[in-house]
Amino acid sequence: MVSFSQIHRSGRHLAVAAVFAGAMIVAGCSGSGDDQPGTTSRSGAAAPSGTAVPPGSGSRDLSGGGTCSAGEDIVIATVGASPIISGDCGTISVSADKVRGNIESAAEVTISGSDVTLLGETWGTVTIEGAGSGTNVDRIDRLTLTAANTRVTGTHIGTATVDGDGGTINTDGIGTLTLNGDRSTIIVGGAIDRLEVHGSANTVNWSEGARRPATDTGKNNTYTR
């Protein structure tokens, strides 16, 4: 029924390696070898990943990529950054615009920057607040789209709530889908277990699960099952 619902997985990891390899090389070459006056030289010491943030912030800046400790909270605050982040992260806040990156695993991801594209494997709670931002993540437990023109691709989403207008979701399955905004397009290769629609002019295409929306208070919505 939906021939392009599998597009997101084809060659995804190869593409990531190609796009971000240059960024990793540049990051590895950056830094200063100057020693501070009156201190012992540490030219041969390895520098820690990420950028230090002011005391009290509680989060490390990994705009340059790196590995987060189990449950560690981090931020990405550099415009145009291309971080590749491994490890089982805690809360990740992406405040910068035009970020292109890969985040392996996180308990929570909030994207407030605009025109952000992030890849990943397993994320818990995801909130996209930046216009034109999107993700390509295998599994998301809870998804909320508040901004306009967002885009999400993946394998499975537990719960998805679309509050913004003009969003796009392309996945293999959604547990519960709620559409509060207008003009979104939802393409699901498998099941939507429960569907509620309160917005208008939305298009929803799925093949299994709910026969029809449990609630439809909007106008001019199109459903194909």
UniProtKB/TrEMBL annotation:
Stretches the record annotates as Disordered: 31-65, 206-225
Top-rank taxon, per record: Bacteria
Protein name: DUF3060 domain-containing protein
